[in-house]
Every structure is written in structure tokens, then in C-alpha cells.
Specification:
Distance between the termini: 17 Å
Strand content: over 45%
Helix content: under 10%
Number of helices: 1
Radius of gyration: 15 Å
Length: 184
């Protein structure tokens, strides 16, 4: 996969997301989410860089509602640093990230874990709760049910979903939350 474009439609929230994924010496992801979240207009612009093993090395999230806010984190030597360069030890167990308003960040964990069918693994992710801009470590579990089907579980909230993915591990169907509009 050298370059891929995806459009998802939000079901739970009335949003639309355009994503561009460029893979060469690393994975470079640009995502744009626009719509109504909690019945308020919101635009999110995010950038993620991951190495070829799908380990996240940087994330920048900008939200635009009545004011613009930004979060920036980079991961070096197994340490997460904010935009001021401060290391946050509480995030040390986190290799993956999860941005609450996009199905894409599930791809990072699923592709990195490379689970065999029937295998599962618990991980701790750096979770970005939008639009609140809250950042915290959260435990999750992924189970590979079939070639292109995973069970995602938030051990923090108890939420569970079965995610159908394409040949590149990108979500096709996230029941009652997101639906892929293009390419089908």
C-alpha cells in the first residue's frame, strides 16, 4: 500500500471523515473530521506518523469549534513527550493511540499486533477523548476472529464491537458508529 484514501460517515455522531494514508519509509496519516458532535459543530484535523511496524511516533490533533485547540505528542525511546518536550511517564506503556472520533486508530493496533486468527492481546493506548481534549492511558483488548474480522473491547468502558477490515486493516464497518463510504 503506497497511498490510500478513505471516506467514513459517522453514525453515532453526524460526521464525515476524509483520510489520506501514505506509506513509504513510514506511515503518514492525515485525517479531517467535520460535523456535529454532541449537537455542536466541530472540525478535527489530525496527523499521525507511525513506523513500518505501525508503532506511533507522533500525533498532532487540532480541533476547531468556537476556538482552536491543539494536542501534540511524540514518542522517542519509549517515552511520550508533549509539545513542550515534557515526558509523561504515565503514558510509558502506550505504543498505540486511539482518537475517539475516528475508526482509523484501530488500524494502528490491529496491524501492529499482527494477531493470528483466534489470538487476542490486551494493550494500553494513549487515548484522546474529543472534543474534550482529554488524554489518558486506557486498556483495550483486540481479538482476531477471522481473516478480516476483529473484536475490539474497551476495558475502560466495557464497550465492545466487531470490526470488519479491508486487506490493509482499514475499517470497513464499525457497527452503529461508522460506515465506510469510499471505497466500498
Amino acid at each position: 500500500m503506497a497511498s490510500k484514501q478513505i471516506v467514513w460517515s459517522g453514525i453515532y455522531y453526524d460526521t464525515i471523515e476524509y483520510l489520506h494514508l501514505q506509506s513509504d519509509a513510514a506511515h503518514h496519516i492525515q485525517g479531517y473530521i467535520t460535523g456535529l458532535v454532541n449537537e455542536q459543530p466541530l472540525h478535527v484535523d489530525y496527523r499521525i506518523t507511525a513506523n513500518l511496524n505501525w508503532e506511533t511516533t507522533s500525533v498532532v490533533i487540532k480541533t476547531h469549534d468556537h476556538i482552536q485547540k491543539e494536542l501534540l505528542f511524540t514518542r522517542e525511546n519509549d517515552k511520550w513527550h508533549d509539545k513542550q518536550g515534557t515526558a509523561h511517564e504515565i503514558f510509558d506503556p502506550c505504543v498505540d493511540i486511539d482518537i475517539s472520533l475516528t475508526p482509523f486508530t484501530n488500524t494502528l493496533a490491529m496491524n501492529r499486533l499482527s494477531l493470528a486468527i483466534g489470538e487476542w492481546q490486551e494493550i494500553t493506548v494513549l487515548y484522546f477523548d474529543l472534543p474534550a481534549m482529554d488524554v489518558k492511558p486506557v486498556k483495550q483488548r483486540y481479538t482476531r476472529l477471522a481473516e478480516r474480522l476483529y473484536r475490539y473491547e474497551s476495558l475502560y468502558s466495557g464497550f465492545k464491537a466487531e470490526l470488519e477490515v479491508d486487506e490493509d486493516g482499514l475499517v470497513l464497518d464499525y457497527p452503529e458508529i461508522w460506515s465506510r463510504e469510499w471505497p466500498k
